[in-house]
Design a protein that fits this description.
The chain is about 70% helix and about 0% strand. The chain has helices at about 5-30, 40-45, 50, 55-75, 80-100, 105-125, 130, 135-165, 170-190, 215-225, 230-235, 245-250, 260-265, 295-315, 315-325, 330-355, 360-380, 385-395, 395-405, 410-440, 445-460. The radius of gyration is 23 Å and the shape is globular. It has about 475 residues and is mainly alpha-helical. The protein has a single domain (about 10-195, about 290-460), classed as MFS general substrate transporter like domains (Growth Hormone, Chain: A), CATH 1.20.1250.20.
């Protein structure tokens, strides 16, 4: 293979990663589209603001169920085909919402949105090891998941900006068009991603061994550890052990090195168990499943507290600005864009810090969210408060996901996180709507502040352990 071929292959891989990141941005923006359009949609469909908030609740609940369900039922289907189907479904859902003339039709469209969100997000989060060499898995995963965080803080302001000129239906049409264009991009950039092979009648197939009797994977890994050029080439070749890519064995260790022996990889092999964590404190990929671990349970609890608190308030931020701050459409669009820019900055800044130590980063983020949402009912709508809120929430998603990766959560850990995240969106939007309709619009900000503060306390007390990345 010439250097030109290697360069072209590398570019193709990162183009695929980028297209998947745009996909996660598109699905999460579609999920949160009603936030900046809530009062306009409620008025056109003749429902209250609280009832209109169910447009956020429905896709969140559906996505929470769809994520693990699709992961199980489509496990043998090529992931490329599955992702293309889910993006096509999202385009249909957005266009159906754009032309909905009743709340019932809108809710049906939002259910379809939820199916697409749950499946696409859960599959996309684990694609990096199949798209790039092992040494680049962490960076590729951060890029893919940054689409989620950036959508949460930038997609909504952009949709609000579009609707301020052409109405709320134009925002749904725009997202439907984006999904259709992205469908073509994904079809052009994603390589085949075969699903799990069906089990044989006699049980799992034994690994194919070469004609010689040695363990060539061990020899190759030993050579690759000593020669960087060989290591880079090795990461792009197939290991003879169970048909697995060699890079998956080394993707979590610095420099692509691996400390496992061939006996740990071969069926029936015996070896002294390796430590659960590497020198950097991250859980080794061959350690006990992290979905049983205390750190992952903490991540899920923090997800519920921080995300539900955020969406209890953020779903109704437009009515708050209209009723309390007396802001017009232009000021609301500007304020949400400022919030979004701060959130993007918070996403990447927090990602860099959380990769080393996620717990203190999440404590700081929760404190910023609590401070901002508590300040809004008191001092109205200074842009500085929205900047603080954006910086806080913008880093939550990537920090939580990096914590899961650090603990070696795997596909099940990611599926549980996706479910918890989407359930939290639904819980927050529903609880916020009940508070808005039953108490007041300012009370929902106090609810958000209380949940964020509780999250900071939980992370500080329960998370104080050498196994939590502190």
């Amino acid at each position: 293979m010439t250097m030109t071929d290697v360069r072209a292959s590398t570019q193709a891989r990162w183009l695929a990663v980028t297209s998947v990141a745009v996909g996660t941005f598109t699905i999460v923006t579609s999920e949160m589209l009603p936030v900046g359009l809530l009062t306009s949609i409620a008025s056109d469909l003749r429902v209250s603001d609280g009832t209109a908030g169910l447009m956020m609740t429905a896709p969140g609940l559906v996505a929470a169920v769809a994520a693990p369900l699709l992961a199980v039922t489509t496990r043998r289907v090529d992931r490329r085909v599955t992702l293309l189907g889910l993006m096509a479904l999202l385009a249909v859902a957005n266009l159906a919402g754009a032309f909905a003339q009743s709340h019932v039709v809108m809710m049906a469209a939002r259910v379809l949105t939820g199916v697409s969100i749950g499946g696409f997000w859960a599959f996309a989060a684990g694609l990096a090891p199949r798209l790039v060499p092992g040494r680049s898995v962490g960076r590729a995963t951060s890029i893919i998941l940054s689409g989620v965080s950036v959508a949460a803080v930038l997609g909504v302001p952009a949709a609000t900006f579009v609707s301020s000129f052409a109405g709320w239906r134009s925002a749904f049409i725009a997202m439907g068009a984006v999904a259709l264009v992205l469908l073509a991009v994904l079809a052009a950039t994603l390589p085949p991603l075969p699903g799990d092979p069906p089990p044989s009648e006699d049980g799992p197939a034994a690994p194919v061994r070469p004609r010689n009797d040695r363990a060539p994977a061990q020899d190759a890994l030993t050579t690759a550890q000593s020669h960087p050029a060989d290591r880079n080439a090795l990461q792009d070749t197939q290991s003879p052990l169970a048909g697995q890519d060699v890079r998956t064995a080394a993707q979590s260790l610095p420099g692509g090195q691996d400390t496992r022996t061939a006996a740990q990889s071969l069926p029936g092999g015996q070896d002294t168990p390796a430590p659960a964590r590497d020198a950097a404190g991250a859980r080794r990929p061959d350690a006990r499943p992290a979905w049983l671990s205390r750190p992952l349970k903490l991540v899920l609890v923090l997800t519920v507290l921080l995300v539900s608190g955020h969406f209890a308030a953020y779903t109704y931020v437009r009515p708050f600005m209209e009723q309390i701050s007396h802001a017009g459409p232009a000021l609301i669009s500007t304020a949400l864009l400022v919030y979004g820019a701060a959130g993007v900055a918070g996403n990447f800044a927090s990602g860099a810090l959380a990769a080393r130590s996620p717990r203190p980063v999440l404590i700081a983020l929760a404190a910023l969210m609590a401070l901002a949402t508590a300040a809004l009912p008191v001092i109205g709508l200074p842009l500085a408060v929205l900047v603080v809120w954006g910086l806080g929430y913008g880093g939550v998603g990537v920090a939580l996901q990096l914590w899961i990766m650090r603990e070696g959560g795997g596909e099940l850990g990611t599926a549980l996180f996706v479910s918890a995240f989407n359930v939290s969106i639904a819980i927050g939007a529903f609880a916020g709507g009940r508070v808005v309709d039953g108490v007041s619009i300012t009370a929902v900000m106090w609810l958000a502040a209380g949940l964020a503060a509780l999250g900071a306390v939980v992370a500080g007390i329960w998370g104080r352990s050498r196994t939590t990345g502190s």
